[in-house]
């Protein structure tokens, strides 16, 4: 990319330390149950575990057989069972069933339950209620953070979003606080912490509390600044179609734990193939942040270069050939393989995405973001629903419409909802109920009802909790205020100018120049202003909870200036690859390096699927 | 100064000295006669159990506790049973082992703490002898009963009694015995006449000390060193055997020429000892027998007790408290006559210039840290050795016990100001130092019954202020233990971490307050703890009422119920009259139900609830769903289709695909399906079946609400350009270009675009042109585009 890049971006700290810590602790825990044992692993912990310790390592510590937790009766013959699970009620219930079944047939085994990353009281209560608390030993594997790449760290907790923002269950907040604490103790001390959102505030407080309890070590900071942001501060961005390569791959093929499975149509063979997508992949690293329209050109240039490199052979004598084969050929071959894979992926995406309806969908999205030709957009959505095109896509467009327009007119709301139910089934009544609760899809209405309820409930509790209560309710009443925010922060560039995607001029390039993600814009603004001053109106519209704190030991003038330009951004509730690309762009422009910590990588489909109630 | 060596006695190559620690502050009329005495090591407290002067059955002995300097700390008449042995724990608690095997524990100030028993068997057989011992596991108790059986308790804080195997041939108590810790195992070494046995968990093994002189008929006393490494045996022939406890090596044997059993026998050795020795005490004689076979004799003018220390022996008498030890090498270096050691030179310098630290200048390469830290240590030692404190620690002992423990000891003695001063002086981190002392002080303060709650709470908060790492909840817990609930609640108010308040609040049955605090803490897990607690404590109605006022707790409980107790969830919604959620609840339930009738009845319940919630939309949608389900069932029964559970859209599609047009029409009318949708559905279904005639008829049936472009597109999708062409003419002008392009008619598209003079559309057509396209057409297009652009 040929834009003005600041060359002095600082080096990122080494996050592989996190993996080593996690592995060492896991080994320690496994050794607490000496002897051969079978290990049952929660399905969604399999991939993260794989990044930490491979099967050989597990076998070295006397793990005999590995099973995925499937909530069925088990077939293991081992007399020691070890369960590595998330602290979920259903899973613990299943373990109780396993143990009780063994008891019923008089089989004696030793059981160990390892909760990752922490245990919850509810789980232990369940063990107690089921009468097996004496039969099992429990432990915690404080594996909070999985580095997915040099600059992406994930908590791998996709349920965070639903639990926290929909169910009002805040138990993961402390987990987020502990993760922050871990990062602080390894890479801190942080000199500045900014944040916005209720959950961010709570996570920040939880972290501070843990700092107070623990011992302080004085060390040189690797990371200077931290920005915490709640996903519900900006719900528009994750609902937009992604058009940057990495995001698009995620939307279409679903990247899981930094790894994607390309089907036969991509690999142009009869097998599918699992590929790690990170900065180690040279080809991918160069295109991941590019707008999709640029990728093909880039790849063909790359192919030509590769050919030239191969062609060098023709004029070589034997000796040169020997060095070529031993030194270059392997690298070229690898690059060749990767290149053909990404070309395959691009082709497959091209097929899907250059189709008429995708273009029209993008056009609709852009109109919604701009607030332009809303009637046409509604008709488009209606047609989309009527033709029973994808259930999730329809919902995505509905939500975008509601978010950008501050809710739907009652007439539209009812008619679209009715049509939606006709197309996809009445059980989606529950989905709509959830969407409404979260504020993703609401009906415009005169706002009194909520304030009445608020004051009624408010009277019942004492003052201190009333504050929190109002918060809880205000999240119900939350208006997106998207239009006003967009104007204030210039999120939508003027559409009369041509946007050259080859030379992006701002973060809007990640959405074809149509929209600068609100989340990233906030980060940019706060870093520029060194706080929230001048953004009062913005934060009021977002519903506040913003904060900016200077750390106690942050005023150290000797603090490495490099560290001050490394900024850790923590998304509570998930972030998209597009946002990461936007931050990388911002970093290059301003000489920052961003480290993204997220509860999980998300995208529109994941956000909306988590709202479904009737399936699964 | 010159006389400092006056009381030094040579023993082999080394010197021994006896120095006075204190002139005892107590006044004991009869000295230590008829007293049971227990003195704790490391300059610890001394307990006396004095027999009453008048030997009447009603007379009670007096238990007295003193500091090492003889300052009284407690005194009270002993009202419990006969005591066999007194001893001190590592935490400065007094153990009184009674004849019946009960062990009573008192603190330094004579306050009863708790008791435990050494086993039921003891009650009958009685304790003959008992010993208190210290090991890495803590303080232990060993007893031998009237049945000649030994019982051990390794750690009185984690009581596990171990009855040791029987000793063959033992009647009554052994002639002497000792407890020793070896290889992480605690054993008993005992002598029965001339026989020596080692008694461990599983067996009783006879042993012979190597080279014990054969004249002996009986071993009558034994002593194990402070470190459990060395053993001394005294025989009735007056021989003192010294060796290692594992009985493999003999160090020496000394003939004392005294044949009566010594009253007490203890090792005196220090780390890196030159000349270890055993100190034996008879009525009037104190004998120091060195390994070198030399001895020193002291005459005693009063009844005394020996206390073994890490680096010597303390001798406590009624008037004096003395320390007998091998002269430490540092002292020897300084004070030995004509010594030229640096220390000695320094001392000279001090004498000349009255400032010892001047001398440092003459020492090259001397790092200042040891000097500074040694000066600090000395100051600390001097302050605790002070008569009023009475902890006569040597420097070696101090280093061994650590500052931490010393602070603890001061805290046990309630010497809070001194403890705090030492912490500050040594710059101990607040956590381990000042804060810890303050916490102890506060815990002690809350037990002062006479002071009102208000003033105690205020005093505590003022003193503790902002000290780091203070846990108010611990202090409150202590107040609660003393029955001062109100005070505890007041103290909890000071606890900054609301999470810490909760467990105690629950314990005090202040569960409502606990719930609020838990919610305030933001720790969901804690909230959950309280909720579970409340659930078990309260009746259901009250419980729900409580939750109702706490939305966070309520939502949490709902989450739990969703997974665990569906019925409770319903009750919750019922109580709140939350008809909307009840409706949702029934809808959710209906999808888990496989039987249609049950499903319908659940949906009916949902409809009722939605109606109550005035949610007409949801009610109507649910009613329609019921209608649809019935319709589907009827059709499934009549026609054998598998429609049940499909959405309206899918049902229609299935009907149209299967040629049930009449039924589809009926659904379309009954459910007021929008025309657009119906047209789309029918269009797609007919195209899928490639029923082109029917499609044409349908297109002509009336004006299409979705236009005719879709007709073109579905045909193209099925690769039927011929059919597609039929509809191109019907397409609206705006969509003409698209329609022509769809069937690949470039010329037609060009015509349409040029006619519409739309620059965008002309460009679209141009983009589709290839090198093979007719030149004329291209030119026309380009021309038209430039004209359109000009406008």
TrEMBL record, chain A:
Topological category with respect to the lipid bilayer: Peripheral membrane protein
UniProt keyword annotations, A-Z: Protein transport, Transport
Top-rank lineage group of the source organism: Eukaryota
An example Gene Ontology CC term for this record: late endosome membrane
Keyword Transmembrane: no
Listed Pfam families: Sec1 (PF00995)
Localization in the cell: Late endosome membrane; Lysosome membrane
Family of this protein: Belongs to the STXBP/unc-18/SEC1 family.
UniProt-recorded name of the protein: VPS33B late endosome and lysosome associated
Organism: Esox lucius
TrEMBL record, chain B:
GO molecular function, one term: actin binding
Coiled-coil stretches noted in the UniProt entry, renumbered to this chain: 593-641
Example GO biological process: intracellular protein transport
Residues annotated as domain Vps16 N-terminal: 5-354
Gene3D superfamilies named in the record: Vps16, C-terminal region
Keywords from the named record: Coiled coil, Endosome, Lysosome, Membrane, Protein transport, Transport
UniProt membrane topology term: Peripheral membrane protein
Record text on subunit structure and interactions: Core component of at least two putative endosomal tethering complexes, the homotypic fusion and vacuole protein sorting (HOPS) complex and the class C core vacuole/endosome tethering (CORVET) complex. Their common core is composed of the class C Vps proteins VPS11, VPS16, VPS18 and VPS33A, which in HOPS further associates with VPS39 and VPS41 and in CORVET with VPS8 and TGFBRAP1. Interacts with RAB5C. Interacts with STX17, MON1B. Associates with adapter protein complex 3 (AP-3) and clathrin:AP-3 complexes.
Function, in words: Plays a role in vesicle-mediated protein trafficking to lysosomal compartments including the endocytic membrane transport and autophagic pathways. Believed to act as a core component of the putative HOPS and CORVET endosomal tethering complexes.
Designated name of the protein: Vacuolar protein sorting-associated protein 16 homolog
Taxonomic classification: Eukaryota, Metazoa, Chordata, Craniata, Vertebrata
């Amino acid at each position: 990319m040929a834009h003005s890049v600041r060359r002095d971006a600082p080096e990122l700290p080494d996050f592989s330390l996190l993996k080593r810590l996690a592995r060492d602790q896991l080994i320690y825990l496994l050794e607490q149950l000496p002897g051969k044992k079978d290990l049952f692993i929660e399905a969604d912990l399999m991939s993260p575990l794989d990044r930490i310790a491979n099967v050989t390592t597990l076998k070295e510590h006397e793990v005999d057989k590995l099973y995925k937790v499937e909530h069925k009766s088990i077939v293991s013959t081992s007399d020691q069972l070890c369960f590595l699970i998330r602290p979920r009620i259903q899973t613990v219930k299943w373990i109780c069933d396993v143990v009780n079944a063994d008891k019923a047939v008089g089989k004696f085994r030793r059981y160990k339950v390892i909760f990752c990353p922490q245990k919850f009281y509810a789980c232990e209560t369940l063990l107690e209620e089921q009468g097996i608390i004496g039969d099992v030993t429990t432990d915690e594997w404080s594996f909070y953070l999985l580095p997915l790449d040099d600059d992406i760290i994930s908590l791998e907790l996709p349920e965070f979003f639903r639990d926290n923002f929909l169910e009002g269950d805040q138990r993961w907040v402390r987990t987020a606080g502990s993760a922050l604490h871990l990062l602080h103790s390894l890479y801190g001390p942080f000199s500045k912490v900014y944040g916005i959102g209720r959950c961010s505030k709570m996570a920040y407080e939880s972290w501070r509390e843990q700092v107070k309890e623990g011992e302080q070590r004085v060390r040189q900071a690797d990371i200077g600044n931290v920005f915490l942001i709640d996903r519900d501060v900006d719900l528009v961005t994750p609902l937009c179609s992604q058009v940057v390569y990495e995001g698009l791959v995620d939307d279409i093929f679903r990247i899981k734990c930094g790894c994607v499975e390309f089907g036969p149509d991509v690999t142009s063979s009869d097998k599918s193939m699992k590929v790690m997508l990170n900065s180690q992949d040279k080809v991918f690293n160069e295109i991941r942040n590019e707008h999709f329209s640029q990728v093909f050109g880039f790849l063909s240039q790359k192919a030509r270069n590769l050919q030239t490199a191969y062609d060098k052979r023709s004029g070589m004598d034997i000796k040169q050939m020997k060095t070529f084969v031993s030194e270059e050929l392997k690298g070229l071959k690898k690059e060749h393989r990767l290149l053909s894979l990404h070309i395959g992926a691009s082709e497959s995406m091209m097929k899907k995405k250059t189709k008429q309806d995708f273009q029209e969908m993008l056009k609709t999205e852009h109109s919604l973001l701009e607030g332009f030709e809303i009637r046409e957009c509604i008709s488009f959505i209606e047609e989309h629903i009527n033709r029973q095109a994808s259930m999730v896509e329809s919902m995505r467009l509905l939500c975008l419409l509601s978010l950008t327009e501050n809710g739907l007119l009652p007439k539209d709301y009812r008619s679209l909802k009715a049509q939606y139910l006709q197309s996809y089934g009445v059980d989606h009544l529950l989905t709509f109920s959830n969407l409404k609760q979260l504020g993703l899809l609401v009906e415009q209405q005169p706002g009194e009802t909520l304030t009445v309820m608020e004051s009624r409930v408010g009277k019942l509790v004492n003052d201190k909790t009333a504050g929190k209560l109002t918060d809880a309710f205000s999240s119900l009443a939350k208006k997106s205020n998207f239009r006003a925010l967009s104007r204030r922060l210039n999120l939508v560039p003027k559409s009369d100018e041509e946007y050259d995607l080859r030379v992006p001029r701002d973060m809007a390039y990640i959405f074809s120049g149509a929209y600068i993600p609100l989340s990233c814009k906030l980060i940019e603004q706060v870093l520029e202003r060194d706080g929230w001053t001048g953004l009062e109106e913005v934060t009021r519209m977002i519903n506040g909870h913003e904060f900016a704190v200077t750390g106690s030991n942050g005023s150290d003038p000797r603090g490495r200036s490099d560290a001050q330009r490394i900024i850790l951004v923590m998304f509570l509730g998930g972030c998209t690859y597009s946002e990461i690309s936007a931050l990388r762009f911002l970093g290059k422009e301003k000489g920052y390096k961003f480290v993204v910590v997220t509860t999980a990588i998300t995208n529109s489909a994941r956000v909306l699927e988590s709202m479904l109630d009737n399936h699964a | 100064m010159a006389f400092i060596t006056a009381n030094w006695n040579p023993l082999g190559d080394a010197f021994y000295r006896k120095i006075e620690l204190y002139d005892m502050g107590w006044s004991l009329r009869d000295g230590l006669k008829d007293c049971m005495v227990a003195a704790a090591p490391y300059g610890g407290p001394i307990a006396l159990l004095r027999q009453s002067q008048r030997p009447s059955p009603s007379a009670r002995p007096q238990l007295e506790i003193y500091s090492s300097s003889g300052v009284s700390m407690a005194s009270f008449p002993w009202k419990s049973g006969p005591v066999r042995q007194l001893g001190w724990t590592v935490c400065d608690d007094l153990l009184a082992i009674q004849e019946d095997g009960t062990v009573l524990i008192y603190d330094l100030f004579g306050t009863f703490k708790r008791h435990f028993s050494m086993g039921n068997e003891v009650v009958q057989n009685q304790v003959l002898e008992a010993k208190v011992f210290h090991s890495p596991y803590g303080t232990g108790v060993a007893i031998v009963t009237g049945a000649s059986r030994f019982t051990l308790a390794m750690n009185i804080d984690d009581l596990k009694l171990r009855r040791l195997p029987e000793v063959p041939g033992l009647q009554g108590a052994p002639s002497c015995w000792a407890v020793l810790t070896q290889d992480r195992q605690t054993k008993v070494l005992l002598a029965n006449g001339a026989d020596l046995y080692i008694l461990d968990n599983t067996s009783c093994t006879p042993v012979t000390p190597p080279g014990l002189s054969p004249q002996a008929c009986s071993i009558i006393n034994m002593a194990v060193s402070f470190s459990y490494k060395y053993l001394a045996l005294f025989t009735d022939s007056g021989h003192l055997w010294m060796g290692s406890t594992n009985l493999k090596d003999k160090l020496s044997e000394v003939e004392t020429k005294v044949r009566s059993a010594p009253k007490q026998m203890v090792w005196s050795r220090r780390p890196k000892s030159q000349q270890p020795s055993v100190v034996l005490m008879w009525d009037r004689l104190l004998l120091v027998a060195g390994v070198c076979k030399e001895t020193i004799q002291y005459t005693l003018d009063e009844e005394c007790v020996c206390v073994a220390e890490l680096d010597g022996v303390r001798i406590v008498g009624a008037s004096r408290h003395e320390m007998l030890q091998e002269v430490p090498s540092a002292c020897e270096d300084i004070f030995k006559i004509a010594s030229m050691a640096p220390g000695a030179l320094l001392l000279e310098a001090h004498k000349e210039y009255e400032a010892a630290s001047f001398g440092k200048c003459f020492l090259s390469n001397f790092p200042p840290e040891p000097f500074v830290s040694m000066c600090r240590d000395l100051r600390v030692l001097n302050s605790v050795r002070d008569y009023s404190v009475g902890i006569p620690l040597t420097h070696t002992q101090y280093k061994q016990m650590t500052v931490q423990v010393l602070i603890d000891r001061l805290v046990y003695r309630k010497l809070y100001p001194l403890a705090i001063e030492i912490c500050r002086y040594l710059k101990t981190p607040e956590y381990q130092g000042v804060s810890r002392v303050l916490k102890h002080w506060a815990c002690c303060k809350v037990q002062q019954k006479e002071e009102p709650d208000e003033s105690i709470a205020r005093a505590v908060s003022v003193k503790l202020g902002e000290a780091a790492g203070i846990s108010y909840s611990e202090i409150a817990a202590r107040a609660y233990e003393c029955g001062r609930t109100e005070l505890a609640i007041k103290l909890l108010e000071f606890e900054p971490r609301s999470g810490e308040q909760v467990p105690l609040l629950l314990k005090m049955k202040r569960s409502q307050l606990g719930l609020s605090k838990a919610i305030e803490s933001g720790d969901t897990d804690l909230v959950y703890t309280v909720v579970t607690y409340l659930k078990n404590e309260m009746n259901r109605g009250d419980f729900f009422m409580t939750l109702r006022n706490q939305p966070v707790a309520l939502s949490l409980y709902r989450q739990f119920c969703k997974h665990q107790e569906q019925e409770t969830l319903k009750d919750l919604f019922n109580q709140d009259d939350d008809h909307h959620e009840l409706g949702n609840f029934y809808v959710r339930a209906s999808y888990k139900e496989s039987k249609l009738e049950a499903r319908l009845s659940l949906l009916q319940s949902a409809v009722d609830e939605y109606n109550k919630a005035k949610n007409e939309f949801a009610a109507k949608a649910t009613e329609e769903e019921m209608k649809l389900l019935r319709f589907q069932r009827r059709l499934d029964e009549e026609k054998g289709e598998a429609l049940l559970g499909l959405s309206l859209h899918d049902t229609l599609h299935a009907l149209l695909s299967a040629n049930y047009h009449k039924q589809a029409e009926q659904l379309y009318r009954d459910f007021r399906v929008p025309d657009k949708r119906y047209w789309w559905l029918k269009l797609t279904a007919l195209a899928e079946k490639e029923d082109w005639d029917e499609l044409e008829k349908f297109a002509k049936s009336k004006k299409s609400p979705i236009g005719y472009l879709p007709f073109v597109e579905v045909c193209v999708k099925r690769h039927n350009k011929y059919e597609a062409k039929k509809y191109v003419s019907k397409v609206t002008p705006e969509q003409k270009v698209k329609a022509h392009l769809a069937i690949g008619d470039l010329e037609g598209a060009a015509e349409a675009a040029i006619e519409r003079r739309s620059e965008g559309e002309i460009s679209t057509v141009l983009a589709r042109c290839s090198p093979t396209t007719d030149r004329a057409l291209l030119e026309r297009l380009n021309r038209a585009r430039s004209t359109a652009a000009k406008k």
